[in-house]
Amino acid sequence: MINDANRIVFKFGTNILRNEEGEISLTHMYSFIEDIASLRKKGKEVLVVTSGAVGIGAKKLKVDTSTSNVLKQAAASVGQQILMRIWQDGFEKYGISVAQILVTEDDFSNRKKYLSLRNTLSKLLELGIVPIINQNDAVLPSELVHVCFSDNDKLSAIVASKLDADLLVMVSDIDGLFDKNPKEYPDAKKIDVVEKVTAKIEKLASGASLGGRGGMITKLSAAKVVNLSGLYAMIVNGKKPRIIKRIFEEENVGTLFLPNKILSHKKRWIAYATNIMGEITVNAGAKSAIIDKQKSLLAVGIVDVKGDFKAGEIVSIFDENHEEFARAMVNYSSDECKKIMGAHSHEIENILGYKGDDDVVVKDNLVIL
Ligand code: GLU
Known about the structure:
Order of helices and strands: EHHEHHEHHEHEEHHEHEHEHEEEEHHEE
Shape: globular
Number of strands: 15
Distance between the termini: 26 Å
Largest sheet: 8 strands, mixed
Helix content: 25-40%
Bound molecules: glutamic acid
Strand order of the largest sheet: 3-4-2-1-5-7-8-6
Number of helices: 14
Structural class: alpha/beta
Mean pLDDT: 90
């Protein structure tokens, strides 16, 4: 099953690329490179999402970046090329070329940029090159540093799902998902396979010590995104020797998340849009029509509209308890939605002075989360 994965995204967290002293862990990196090289030899396509630029740059500059975003950005710029040099030298030993791709969320949400990025990445894979991807920290508006993709788990999930990978492997310093917090409970057991990332599963990660950037919560969200796109996801511990090789020998390492629902490209685009332009709140009747009867969203069920969006843009759909339960591409702008909310479809023409769609969102443009 895992062995059949042809296009694989590996995400390496900062903690696994550095040792306790904060220096680059060459032992880890070279072991990952060796195993990836042997996957390449078998004809598999590999993309790497690497973290570590900020941490490694801070170490080099001997600065504490914890209170300054601009210092983080400066450190990332220094660390990025140190990191790249190692990836490049390492892969070169196996005759494999690498490419550096630095991206921001905007590169995925702007369709033109996204298509161009997708073409470039596809071409690199076709040429047998391993793309090494990280967030372009240097160009982010300072207040958005680490808010944008917020973490590389999310970036790796977006890359994997938008590039039609088969498997996302998040390599971190934890063995996988446990049934209880393993730091508090010595009898905690690793969960080998998760069929679906449900609210119950998400609860397992909600302990404070497991949360935070790059913690279990972000890994579960990443797994959820890729599973919904029809991909497998794994969380494995990169501190375990030859972990990548062992995954493909189908040893029971880490936690495997099974794909559970395959969304079309268009629906993925809607569900994982990075630019949500507004919010529509609907009443219980509309929520149940959408979820239980797979119906479109009509103006009559709308109780509130927030944000400034145009027809064709993506909005979040909330229920009256302020829980987001769907995302959708709307047929009307926010101004129009505000005017027609609560109205029956046959009244729309009277209210707006022109005849628009009967549905505010057609069911094909609606994804239940
Ligand atoms: N772009 C960040 C870095 O290279 C990584 C962010 C993250 O690990 O979530 O340091």
